[in-house]
């Protein structure tokens, strides 16, 4: 299997993981240690790799891929994830108001601020020593661009979950950081957009260089910037979140169209291959998080376990204790959207499966997601050692986001929208009969295309109909009346309790949470 350079940084003692409070308060390393470390180009490469590692892979066993499956997919109408055994995801799909101590909520906050701290430190060291250390100015510029992208990526992730968060764009002492409250989202967007705009010119445009697999290219950054503009343009719902109600669909369209016109990506004809091919061979990959199995450095992934189910894993020859003991069932309404012969359902959903022997021997008809489960890429290190890459943004997503912008008047034509949807339907093996597609129909098509990829919650919010759709889902699916009524405050997650208690009175809690 391939071995990605940035993942090796996870074992660096100097840049190792520390607690949430330590990172958020921006306690710097000792001056002597910093000076001894940032002395060669190789040191800077390792520091950059560490930023990637934490931004993409998190600070523990959960990374970005796990996060969006837990906080986006599981929150959405794609599942009916009501736990009976107090799993970590309890309360996410039930919209509890008491989830400020939830493991997944805390991870989203902690990992992002860990990566932001490392990005801030790297940018400061590049500015301080880069002209001396780097013999090639382009290497210095590219490294700074990657650090800026990763800082922007993490801040964008934070505001989509939490709304206002502390804006920390430099390393700080604990005393300095203890005085910084939650900053306006508009101010955080200023940093995000500035970082991305500064980064894009100095990022590689190559999508064929294996050395950049798992690192951001110019087009990955443009895709994120396009999504930033789209999120800023989305309805506010009357909350202090990432949605500002701006009309920047044209700006988003421009960034996404640059990806299309680059000619670097291909809309493939086989849906299944999208999730099998990796690296430069997969022309759907616009921004990807790589994982590699069976290496001593333990850099495999486990995100497919989040929405998987133990009996299904056993049915494809993977041993016990590798999947989730309790399933997150797919909602009936979502299953009913698919035509019987839709390739997306065939590839991504197991509706029946049989275990020949062992603990789970028997036949099962509980539908579960299987899109990313590939026994051939299951490693020797157990349930956290899968070599399956996770696509943060793929080319089909870029095209369908462009169609969304078009329907908001951002560019392109109705014929373009219909053409994109018909491409998607043709690959799915269903009639390509799209005509005068509306926004609601486009979001329905996105739902069938991107399920179990972590996009659904964000799509719901951009649609402007999140509350109507989710409460209709509750009425149809929640026969036991275990799910709270979903209101506008449910569209944000709570600030983790550990952060609220770190400096009492510094932060206000998001409305609606205990």
Automatic annotation (TrEMBL):
Domain (RagB/SusD): residue spans on this chain: 342-513
Compartments, as annotated in UniProt: Cell outer membrane
Keyword Disulfide bond (UniProt): no
InterPro entries: SusD-like_N, SusD_RagB_dom, TPR-like_helical_dom_sf
GO cellular component entries: cell outer membrane
Predominant location category: membrane
Domain SusD-like N-terminal as annotated: residue spans: 78-229
Ranges annotated as spanning the membrane: none
Keyword Signal: yes
Family from the record: Belongs to the SusD family.
Protein name (Swiss-Prot/TrEMBL): RagB/SusD family nutrient uptake outer membrane protein
């Amino acid at each position: 299997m391939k071995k990605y350079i940035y993942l090796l940084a996870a074992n660096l003692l100097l840049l190792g993981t520390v607690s949430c409070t330590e990172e958020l308060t921006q306690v710097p390393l000792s001056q002597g240690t910093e000076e001894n470390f940032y002395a060669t180009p190789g040191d800077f490469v390792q520091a950059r790799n560490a930023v990637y590692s934490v931004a993409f892979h998190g600070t523990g066993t959960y990374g970005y891929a796990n996060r969006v499956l837990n906080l986006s997919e599981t929150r959405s109408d794609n599942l009916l994830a009501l736990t009976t055994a107090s799993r970590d995801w309890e309360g996410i799909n039930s919209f509890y108001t008491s989830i400020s101590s939830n493991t997944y909520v805390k991870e989203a906050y902690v990992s992002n601020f860990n990566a932001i701290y490392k990005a801030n430190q790297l940018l400061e060291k590049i500015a301080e020593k880069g002209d001396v250390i780097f013999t090639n100015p382009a290497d210095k510029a590219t490294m700074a661009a990657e650090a800026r992208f990763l800082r922007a990526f993490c801040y964008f992730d934070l505001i989509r979950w939490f709304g206002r968060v502390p804006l920390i764009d430099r390393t700080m002492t604990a005393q300095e950081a203890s005085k910084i409250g939650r900053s306006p989202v508009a101010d955080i967007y200023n940093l995000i957009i500035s970082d991305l705009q500064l980064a894009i010119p100095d990022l590689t445009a190559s999508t064929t260089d294996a050395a950049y697999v798992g690192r951001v290219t110019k087009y990955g950054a443009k895709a994120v910037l396009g999504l930033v503009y789209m999120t800023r343009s989305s309805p506010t719902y009357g909350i202090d979140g990432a949605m500002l109600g701006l009309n920047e669909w044209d700006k988003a369209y421009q960034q996404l169209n640059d990806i299309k016109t680059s000619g670097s990506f291909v809309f493939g004809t086989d849906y299944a291959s999208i999730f099998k091919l990796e690296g430069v061979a997969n022309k759907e990959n616009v921004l990807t998080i790589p994982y590699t199995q069976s290496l001593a450095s333990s850099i495999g992934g486990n995100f497919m376990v989040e929405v998987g189910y133990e009996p299904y894993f056993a049915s494809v020859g993977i041993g016990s204790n590798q999947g989730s003991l309790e399933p997150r069932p797919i909602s009936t309404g979502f299953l009913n959207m698919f035509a019987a012969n839709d390739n997306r359902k065939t590839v991504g959903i197991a509706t029946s499966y049989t275990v020949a022997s062992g603990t789970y021997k028997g036949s099962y008809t509980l539908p579960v997601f299987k899109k990313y489960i590939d026994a051939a890429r299951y490693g020797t290190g157990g349930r956290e050692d899968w070599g399956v890459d996770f696509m943060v943004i793929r080319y089909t997503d870029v095209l369908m986001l462009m169609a969304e912008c078009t329907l908001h008047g951002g560019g392109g034509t109705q014929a373009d929208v219909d053409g994109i949807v018909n491409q998607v339907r043709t690959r799915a093996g269903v009639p390509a009969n799209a005509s005068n597609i509306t926004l609601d129909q486009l979001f329905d098509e996105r739902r069938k295309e991107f399920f179990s990829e972590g996009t659904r919650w964000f799509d719901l919010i951009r649609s402007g109909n999140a509350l109507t759709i989710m409460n209709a889902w509750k009425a149809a699916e929640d026969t036991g009346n275990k799910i709270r009524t979903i209101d506008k405050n449910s569209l944000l997650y709570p600030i983790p309790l550990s952060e609220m208690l770190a400096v009492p009175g510094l932060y206000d809690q998001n409305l609606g949470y205990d």
